[in-house]
Structures are given as structure tokens and as C-alpha cells.
Amino acid sequence: MHKIEDFKIESEILKENWNSISKSYVRINKEAELYRNNIKSPNELYGSFFKFLDAADVLMEEWENLYPVFVLEPIKKEVLDFFKKIHLREFDKLNSIEEKIKLYSIAYYIYGTEFYMFVEPDANIYPNLKYDITGRIEISPKSNGLKLEEIFEKIWEHVGLTDFDGTLLYSEGEKNDNQFFQEFLSECWLEAKKITGSNALGFLEEATSACDSYLLDERLNINDYQSFYDNLNFNH
Questions:
Q1: Is residue 84 included in any domain, yes or no?
Q2: Are the beta carbons of 86 and 196 closer than 8 angstroms?
Q3: Is 1 inside a domain boundary?
Q4: What is the pLDDT of residues 222-231, one digit of tens each?
Q5: What is the pTM assigned to this prediction?
Q6: Residue 49 lies in a domain
Q7: Is residue 174 part of a domain?
Q8: How confident is the model at residue 119 (pLDDT cuts 50, 70, 90)?
Q9: How far apart are CA 101 and CA 108, in angstroms?
Q10: How many domains is the chain partitioned into structurally?
């Protein structure tokens, strides 16, 4: 464990989360130090830019490492319980649906502190199925996305890389958040499916269409809807 006293950190959010972020901080700071030492010499300005890029790459790698810790792990139990309800046909029971639903459409939205997810029978497979929209199953746990962003803002500031706009860099990391989230939801869906013995399929959609739809059971991006439905196999 790296001691926080060795780095003269004043930021409260870094202090409060030091146990979780210390390894990431030390790694980013090491790369930033190479940049800071390089830029002191006028003859090394060109090389210092590449040292900066090295530090930026490390920062984005550490964003990816910490994203599950701060954003995904805290909501795993609630997501897993949500998927168990789907596999146990709780939606069907709430809406008195006798037909066994084989494909559910699951929509989600995540931004900042907001996370929302709900489920309905897939409208393309069940276009005539009638149910009360108030009977759908949904969850809205708090997300720590903004907290992670603030942590990285403070790290960026503290390691002395403010010559460049760090927001552009960790926003690049945020572009991968939907991919992380899809993979995480797939793991939870498959775990719930195994626990319940269900054979239902889950079709995941980001509510703002920020990324391709995703078949949770196959961990497969869907960008050709017609082909997907034409080749859909319920024998899972």
C-alpha cells in the first residue's frame, strides 16, 4: 500500500478514496513525472509531448481499471436481483401473461449519477401482446460515474499535467463506458440465468442509441436488426 503522506495530497476526494485509487495514482504520477522532467529543457519540448501522450495513455488505462470498482460493483447485487426477476417470469405474472416470453427487450440509460433500466417483452416478437406499462419491472440505483470523473480531474490536476486539457482524455475513456456496461450486464444476466435455470434471451438497448444493441446471452453487438430477427435461435 502506498502511503498518501508521500504525495502531499490535499484533495478530499482523493484522500477519501485513497485505498481504491492509490495504485492508479502512483502509476499516473510516475508517467507525469517523466513528462515534467522532460519539459524543463527547451531542447526536449518535442519529446516532452510524447511523454505527455504516454501519461495520457496510462490515465485512460487506469480509468478502465477503476470504472468497475466505482461504477459497476456497487450496483451488481441490484442488477442481479433485477435479472433474476425477469428469468423467474415476474413480469409475466404481474401482467397476467400466460404465453411464455422467450425474448425480453431491456433498455438502460446511464449518465453521471443517473442509471435506469427497465424490461418489456420484445415488441418485434410479440407485437400484439397487451400489458400495462406500469407493470413493467425497473430499477434506478445511483451511479458513481460523476464521482469517478471528479477523482480523475483531481488526479490530473495534482500530477501537474494541467498544460493540456485533461477532460478530453478521460472523456475518451468514457466512450468505452457503454462497452464496459454491456459486458457487465451480460455477466449478470448469464449468472441470473444459470441460477434460475431459465432459457429466456435478453436484448439490450441503450435508451439514447449511443451504441449498438446487444444480445446479452451471446455477448454480441447487433447492428443489423433484420438479420438478427431472421436468425434468432431460442434453443439456449
A1: yes
A2: no
A3: no
A4: 877 778 777 7
A5: 0.82
A6: yes
A7: yes
A8: very high
A9: 20
A10: 1
